Amino acid sequence: MKKEDLKKLVTESPAEHTEIFMQKSELKLSRFAESIIHQNISQETTNLTVVVHEGKRKGSASTTDPSTGGVKKAIEKACEAARFQKPDPDFPGLPFSDEIAPELPSFSQETADCSPEQRARGIAEIREIGEKEGFKGFGTYSTQANRFFSINSGGNYREWDTSQAYLKVLYMGGPGEGEGFAQDVCVNVGDLDVTKVAEKAARKCSETQERQTLKPGEYTVILEPLAVCELLGYLGFIGFNGLACNEGRSFFAGKIGEKVMDEKISILDDPYDKSGLPIPYDGEGMPKRPLPLVEEGVYKNYVYDHYLARKEGRKSTGHALPPGFRSFGPMPMNLKMKPGNTTGQDLLKKVERGVLVTRFHYVGVIHPLKTIITGLTRDGTFWVENGEVSHALKNLRFTQGIIDALNQVIGMGSEPGRMPFHIGATQAPALVIDGFNFTGVSEME
Amino acid sequence: MDRWKKLIDLSLNKGADYADLRYIENEKQGIRCKNGKIEELNLGEDSGVGLRVWVNGSWGFASMSLTGNNSEAINALAEEAVALARAANKGQKTRDLAPVKPEKDSFFPDIEEDPFEISLEEKIELLQKAHQGMNGEKIFLTTGNIDCQKERKIFVSSEGSEIEQTFYRTGAGISAMSTDGKDRQIRSYPSAFGGNYAQRGYEFIREMDLEREAERVRKEAEDLLVADQCPSGEMTLILGGCQLGLQVHESVGHPIELDRVFGTEAAFAGTSFLTPENLNNLTYGSEIVNIYADATIPGALGSFAYDDEGVPAQRIPIVKNGRFENYLTSRETAPILKQTSNGTMRAIGWSNFPIIRMTNINLEPGNSSLQELIEGTERGILLDMIKSWSIDDKRINFQFGTEIGWLIEDGKIKGKIKNPTYTGSTLPFWRSCDGIAGPSEWKMWGVPNCGKGEPMQAAPVGHGASYARFRKIKVGVSR
User: Fold this and answer.
1) B446-475 residues touching A, CB cutoff 8 A
2) Do both A193 and A298 map to the same domain?
3) Which of A333, A342, B194, B332 is 20 to 30 A from A84, comparing alpha carbons?
């Protein structure tokens, strides 16, 4: 199905307003355990959603069949669904923008062409690096190529491509049953440094042998970039989420212009950053652009999709999700915390006694309004004393308000890390935080 | 069927030692209501095929959606899947799959009312009436949803299995969020995060009586605004069936997945404390704790006639009189323990690779009652309805929050408490269980979105539970 064909179908739709969003994806993925590939897949999917408005009555239908007949059938179903709806007085019409997003390096043909043999070679290298230390490798090596179409009867026609190469390596083993993890994600698979990721994971695994138990309580922590990225992602979901702000479910509701975090913290949504996973258009086909959210601790902007923006008399900020996901509300997909200027070793020196955390696991939201979450550390938790790593720790449970934590920042690293967040990526540096609340230890009591 | 048998034959010709496929047609209907307004009304359908091949002890898998008569592209799946399997095999030993008897069978569920035959108008009206019942001065957000799915699945294997199954999955739920300007609370019914689900017809939604329950949901959401905070400390804990289902899910259901034990989820969801030397050799819970994996319960969300390897559905003891007796297994993992598969392999939709999934993991009813459990509690709390959950990568340390709780003193309910949480570790927790309510208070809970695998597969699973009591549990953990 070409853009012209979709345009024709939208034009010929019997509905007053018609929108079509289509994502075609090719996912190639190798999962490995004990350094052997146990799952090697190729997944080709097409998901097409039609949203129609008959007057102000909305209906939608989805299909995996993008043929002319398949799309026509979906339009008919969407019209059928709309007939049963009550009119939505807030329906603002369909979005339109004649602004063209800048050329972004969001797609790599090399990633799309990555072969199973190339992934297998990478995993063989991971096995070899682990074997030198007596570790076994576990993880995932995947590439994904996406083509998006967003077309509406208001004249908004967009077509764009993205790609993603993602590697996760967890080593386990050694005399003290260590665990070490590292990962990276990028647009071009050629930029994925398998050796660097594997060696970092192996180093962590070596350092986590013979883990000791730490009594729960409040401690100074050094959160490595992956742990901060996790906090930032949750803040995007429960805090920066435009709908949660509109409905008063977010901490940030009504707080524009207020100082909400330590002044060392600046956060923006940056869909243009080539070191993340750039995205030119949102789920409504509106151009995305960088948007400051927190500047030196002060909250700056809400994020909007077209519907919410018009409801509040504003303009879309390019944060709509695709149809089918919009009930979650408009969300930033490329959150980026500006790094500081302290190197990793100097960050350690700021800590007299504290905990170094590689990453978090299984985070759950306890109190969205207070941004209180709980979760565990994993794959590299260490005790730091007098500015140096002393020994490895058993994994710890934390129960902590994200905003509280970001108000207790005493140090910020200079090198950001990144992790995937839906179709974008979150980027953040390491942080040193005072009074981080650990409430349990992962051990059979 | 012939089309798919040819694809299997083609896979063998390309070099597969074994091949199976699932062809799936899906029809879905989803209605989301927010503050009385239908926010989303989506009618969906999809179809596609996923082909799995086994070559020299390695899997390859390729899938694609069906877009008309693209038989050439579909046939190319065979070559791609075999190439993937060959690329995966780098020096590993050839292994055998556990044997399974080939079956030629079909299964169609016995439902009373086809949910797709019920008009959209009727469903919308139900959600809007529920909204009216929940609406109140202190209620700022109400939600309601109804979901229906019909799935037709054909399974064909190179060993001669030809199985067709049809599944109807139906579910609904409502919730109300309250505020007094300072605090916010939520109550849901019949379960949180989308309600309760089953493999039944629309009669399942009628039995929920959403309109009648809406008023209670509103009242409890408002009551929670002025309720006392959950106390902190170590005390007796009684869990209601909905929350107990989650407790079983997280601290029993996931640790017993044998693929997880062998590390295939290690870098994502984690591993399991339940290493093989524990089989038949570990006290998991107190003597009254009996947990079964039962894929044979009619209408339960995690039931089926055959799994996605063509293995018939089974009822398996997991924990019997407190002792750990079985994992959930597959044709690949079971032989490592010198067993045959107990039939728990499932893939979500046609596009995904089958992995071990929970079926219906049930805490069997005991011989007590909620009333007796409360009367036997000097000081404790009764909690129910999932609000937050977290558990570590080996399934040892957990912390859960619920929507509502009740304080118990001297064997009597003393009033509602808000923001309840509890935490513990898996084995001490189940070993502290000293009372389980009986069959009359036992109910199935359907969870439509158990997450596992990469890419993530959200599976429909079930949990049967009544009420159960646990001693010396740490509660009121928050900040």
Assistant:
1) 454-455
2) no
3) B194
> Which residue, A141, A174, A205, sits at the end of a domain?
A205
How many domains does one find in chain A?
A: 2
**8 Å CB contact between A60 and B79:** no
Q: Which of A146, A176, A205 is the last residue of a domain?
A: A205
* pLDDT per residue of chain A (445 residues) written in tens, 0 to 9: 777 888 999 999 999 999 999 999 999 999 999 999 999 999 999 999 999 999 899 999 999 989 999 999 999 999 999 998 889 999 999 999 999 999 999 999 999 999 999 999 999 999 999 999 999 999 999 999 999 999 999 999 999 999 999 999 999 999 999 999 999 999 999 999 999 999 999 999 999 999 999 999 999 999 999 999 999 999 999 999 999 999 999 999 999 999 999 999 999 999 999 999 999 999 999 999 999 999 999 999 999 999 999 999 999 999 999 998 998 999 999 999 999 999 988 999 999 999 999 999 999 999 999 999 999 999 999 999 999 999 999 999 999 999 999 999 999 999 999 999 988 999 999 999 999 999 999 998 7
- Asked whether the beta carbons of residue B63 and residue A119 sit closer than 8 angstroms, the reply is no
What is the chain B residue with the closest CA to A375? Answer: B390
A256 token code pair: 């524009």
Note whether A361 contacts B268, CB cutoff 8 Å: no
Packing angle, helices B210-225 and B120-134, rounded to 10: 30
For chain B, give every domain's residue range. 2-225, 228-475
Domain extent for A55: 3-205
CATH class assigned to B2-225: alpha beta
Pair A201, A224 in one domain: no
Whether B394 and chain A come into contact, CB under 8 Å, resolves to yes
- Which residues of chain B are within 8 Å of residue A81 when distances are taken between CB atoms? 41-43, 120
Residue A370 gets the label, from left (phi > 0), alpha (psi -120 to 50) or beta, of: alpha
* CB-CB contact of B201 with B170 (8 Å): yes
DSSP A212: B
Give the CATH number for residue A151.
Answer: 3.30.2290.10
Do A187 and A324 lie in one domain? The reply is no
Residues of B in contact with A404 (CB under 8 A): 479
A150 and A241 both lie in a single domain: no
CA distances from B33 to A351, B39, B143, B146, B147 (A): 50, 5, 5, 9, 12
